């Protein structure tokens, strides 16, 4: 019988103080070193640092790169923490055997991307006037290779930290899935509260971020590995280079812009529909159902 995803935390050196120190090290790399690197890059490429806030509102490939630089250091912090502080293999954040199941990764990415794209097409058919065609080939084609590299780094880093490192660490305190999913949803929501989308309706958009964290935690625990969540998150963010909103935290020169996002309550409704469809595809079609263990 294969080792459960939560039992991976028992590998290597797993004293709770190491997790507390590990979180501090990861946050230091992400926030402090990442911010310094971002400012240095901006000063080198753009120039005057006083223009930073204004520049971050522009939709350009340079801005996209700037907003993703700190995630590279976030990833480095996670790697150093797991490899040297806990003395276990980095990919044990993905699975007990420290390997990536690319089939499950592609199922996660493909299913979520297909679901979101289908919902977007339905929205376009129902309200075509709400979509603004803004395709600029020269800008978009330059953005594409950077997005294909940087977006998976950004989303994978978040998944490795929230659904990997934190869930495994918290399992040393409790292994009850509902508690782990709830705490993980809260922790995932908090750093997303400064996102500009929150202005649509703070309570409902915050609830969406919470629900996204809970859902990715659920599929991780259900699948007993991280690949589905890695695929979901990457597909979710990559879709923004095709269709995005004008208040998105990812200011990219997308192909289409949604003019009005509508009532934020619908964000939760549609997310529940999307999650249910994904569950059917990932666990009802591609794999026999497994049950969460509640101990």
Low-confidence stretches: 289-295
Strand content: under 5%
Described by strand count, sense and barrel closure, the largest sheet is:
3 strands, mixed
The tally of structural domains comes to 1
Using only CA atoms, what is the Rg?
19 Å
Describe this structure in words.
GO terms for molecular function: endopeptidase activity. By secondary structure, the protein is mostly helical. It has one domain. 62% of the residues lie in helices and 3% in strands. It has 10 helices and 3 strands, in the order αααααβααααββα. The protein has a 3-stranded mixed sheet, with no helix packed on it. Helix 4 packs parallel to helix 6, helix 5 packs across helix 10 and helix 8 runs parallel beside helix 10. It is globular, with a radius of gyration of 19 Å. The two termini are 17 Å apart. The C terminus is likely disordered.
Structural descriptors:
disordered C terminus; 295 residues; 10 helices; hydrolase; globular; transmembrane helix; mainly alpha; protease; 3% strand; membrane
Protein topology:
Elements lengths: L15 H30 L6 H4 L5 H6 L2 H17 L16 H25 L4 E3 L3 H34 L6 H13 L12 H22 L3 H12 L4 E3 L10 E3 L6 H21 L10
Helix pairs in contact: 1-4, 4-6, 5-9, 5-10, 6-7, 6-8, 6-9, 7-8, 8-9, 8-10
Offer a concise description of the structure.
This protein has 295 residues and is mainly α. The chain has one domain (6-285).
